[in-house]
Every structure is written in C-alpha cells, then in structure tokens.
Amino acid sequence: MPEEEVVRNYKNISxxxxxxxxxxxxxxxxxxxxxxxxxxxxxxxxxxxIFQINDDWLSRLGNFKERKVIDFTQTVFxxxxxTGLSLGTGTVAFIVGIGYFSEDKFFxxxxxxxxxxxxxxMLQLISNSLEPFENIITFNGKAFDIPILESRFTINxxxxxxxxxxxxxxxxxxxxxxxxxxxxxxxxxxEERILSIKRGNDLPGEEVPRFYFRYLHTSDPxxxxxxxQHNCQDIISLALTTIALWQHFHNIxxxxxxxxxxxxxxxxxxKKGEIEKAISIYEKSLSEELPAYLEKETYIKLGLxxxxxxxxxxxxxxxxxxxxxxxxxxxxxxxxxAKLYEHKVKDLQxxxxxxxxxxxxxxxxxxxxIASLEHRLKRIKxxxxx
Length: 386
What we know:
The protein is α+β, with helices and mostly antiparallel strands. It is built from 16 helices and nine strands. It has helices at 3-11, 13-16, 57-61, 119-130, 145-155, 171-178, 187-193, 208-218, 225-249, 259-271, 275-285, 292-309, 312-324, 332-345, 348-361, 367-384; strands spanning 19-24, 27-37, 41-42, 45-46, 75-82, 93-102, 105-112, 135-138, 166-169.
C-alpha cells in the first residue's frame, strides 16, 4: 500500500469519531472531543446534580489529606483503556479519557495513540491538560490507571502530573456504602443497580486490547470506535457515580432507604467519628423488621457506640439484647459485658457468669478465643477469692 494511502487511512479515524489531530514533536495525536449539556439526564439522573454537592464528605470518604468541599470546576474525571490488565511496564494506555465541567457543559477529551512511538507526545498533552485542575476522580485508579500512567511517564522520562492532584478513587467509598447492597462493586454493577443505566451493545472491557491490536494491524477506525464509546460511557458514569455516592450517603436518593445501605451509612459515620448520627441511624433501623443476624449485629454496633459515648447503661442493654439472639454466635457482647462487670460495676459474680456462658456456647474450634476466656475467668476467680 502506498505511503500516502496509509497516512490517509489512519487519519480517517476523524471521519468516524468527532475530534482533532494535534501535532507534537513525536507525531500527530488524535483527541476525540465530546461536549454534553449538564442538564442531560441518564436514566433520570442529571449531570448538573453534581453542583448540589456542598459539603466535605466526598473528600472525607476519599481520605484526602485535607477536608474540603470539592470544586467540580477544578476536577477531572479520568479513565484509561490499556493494552493489558497487568501493571507491568509493557502495559500501555492507548486511550486516556478525561472529563471536566466548564460553562454548563461536561467535556470529554480522549487522547489516542495509533503508534506506540507517539506515546511521549500523548503524555505531554495529557500533562498540559491536567495543569489547571486540583482534583482527580477515578474508579480503581489508585490501583490501576494512575500507577500505569505514572510508570509510562517515568519510562518516557517525563514528570508525572498526578502528584499535585487530590485523588478520589470512587471504588473505595463505593465498597463502603454499597458492598452489602450489591453482589460486587464493579462499575458495570453500579451502573445497572444504582444508576439504572444499561449499556446495550457495549464492548466488554476484556475485549478492548484485542480490538486495539486489530486496529494496529488493519488501520480500520471501526475497530477502535467501540473502545472510544466504552471509554466515554465510563467517564460519564464516573460523574454519575460521584453524584450517587453523595446522594446515597445523605439519604437523598430514594434507593438509599435500603436497610443495607443505611447500615453502611452508619458504619461510615461511626468510622469518621460521627457517633451520634451513627447511633440515630442504627436505632431507626431497629424500628423495622430485620433478619435476625442483622438485628443482632445492630445491637452489637449500638453497644460499642454507646461504650464510646460513656453511656454504660445503654451499652449494657444493647449487648444483653444481642446475647438474647442466639444465632449467629458473636463473642463481642460477652467480652464487653465481662469487662463492664469486672472493671466498672465491680460485680465479679456477673462477670464470672457471663464468661462461663460464653465458654458454654463458643465453638470448640475457637482455640485462641477459648484460651483468652479461660484466662479472664481465672483472673476473676482469683479476685473472688476462689
């Protein structure tokens, strides 16, 4: 095939995907361009709802170094398409998609290389594009996308642009909030179960490398068009998932009334030190009918939280309620009540009885726990003068 025809063929990608070619010293880089009005709705969910987020909870869920209200005009959503799923130095990101809000629109730019020799040019363009932003949002980006990109910046002797960005990886708060509600926390599962989005004929992620390598062999833009579409939807879903996380955490979305999501909310609040709010959610959940195991777990959580507040009477009451539900067996309420009776109430007889009850009920396979209980029992007996 003549050289002119090859050049014309590879540039034909712009006939199938809206975008532009940008010249760099390492060759021309194709950037697909898309702009979406922020009032656009996906399964009834609007992108503009992201500007209702007005507190620091996302930065807290993301474990930012500093708590802050995220400015979404200073935030970039990033997702990559790669030649493989390993973190090895041979894995290359051939599409790097970034989304950002500006002037009542959500813009998506997708940087694409059709030749590995052009990678330094693409990376430099990406670095330049990230310069104005303060925050980055990904899905599993801390474990995958960012390490791969940082590796590629290092290999190409370029400075990584990611160090200055506060990074919210949605996977971790999604697991905290939805792990009880969903069978897994893959982005595709969140789309279907939380966002009510169905992709239809979307290219499966595991097929992406094969389609890209086929494109390198054939220069047929139709091979990579579905990859661009897949990546574009991923970036839109990052924005929608960010909204859903905040709405569910604040119990704004009707779906967040789920008992399991409420339980996760309480757990997150307790972990972040919002004890009274966590107690309120747990106690409210007890007004509804719960499976026995969830009811028992809730009593134990409340006992531990009231221990933190110093309300020992309520702590005792909830641990006693937990013990009344025999299955499943949890050691925690027995040990906590024994500590209370031995050290606070100074009722050694009750401490002795509760440990004896635990020893009668615990599985004989729990060797370490049994040894600990027996050690506690001996100490109590010594104090009793036995």
